[in-house]
Amino acid sequence: MNVLLTMLLSICTLFVLCVDSGDNNPNLIPEIIKLGLLSPIFKNKGSKNDSKNYRGIVVLPILCKIIEYIARIDFRPILLEKQSPLQRGFTPNTSPLNAAIIFEEIYREYTDCNSPFYIALLDAKSAFDVVIINMLMRKIFLLDIEPATWSIIDELHKNTSCSIKWKNQLSQEFKVYQGVKQGGLLSADLYKLYIEDLLSLYENSTLGCKIGNININAVACADDIALLSDNPYDLQILVNHALQYSQLHYYTLQPQKSVIIQVENKAKKTANHNWNFNRDNK
């Protein structure tokens, strides 16, 4: 019992040192607590010999998860208060299926009016893995969260390292300089904040599909974004917004995996259009 009590007191002391901030006592989270174990998980499509068909899931020490949980207590409510209603992924009391309901309503509206519309499904390459930490921390700062919470999140992404587990073997540790860890408690919320400005741009745009006076031009589930428009030229503008945002935030939209769907009325055929998904207009 004395050993258990001593261990609990030591852990509590460690947490206090990690979260207690100040000019004379900056946050300090030991690097060993931030060491991730990355397991490549096959996506069940394509060749198993191609590394692009694997998703890296990171397992973090339980002590790191507890610190993330502490930071999330303050961070998540502020994020949800300012989060765009277009974002339906990883949101409490909201199911991603709600995004499907929006699509269903658009489909019924335009079918009843015998009008065609267009859907763009955008695919971002390795979205979570290429987040620029300095840009992310600036966005968190602008949320006006508690300085101690900002410091904890910042410290969680400093001097981090990872090791790859493959067939019961471990690689040497290597430093990680970008990205939010897939598997971390904060990762989904942090990525939603990273693309929040793009969704706000769509929210304030008058382009796209409409139901009555309500404009509906985008729906997102974390990194998956769908754009809707009843005009092919307006859809290209919406795609251009996403493309420009991806360039400014150093991630890539994949033309090979992004899809345009033309929902046509059988009695009213529309002309085929070509859409551009990259800066070279290809």
TrEMBL record:
This is Reverse transcriptase domain-containing protein. Residues 22-282 form the Reverse transcriptase domain. Keywords: Signal. InterPro entries: DNA/RNA_pol_sf, RT_dom. Residues 1-21 form the signal peptide. It comes from Mytilus coruscus (Sea mussel). It holds the Pfam family RVT_1.
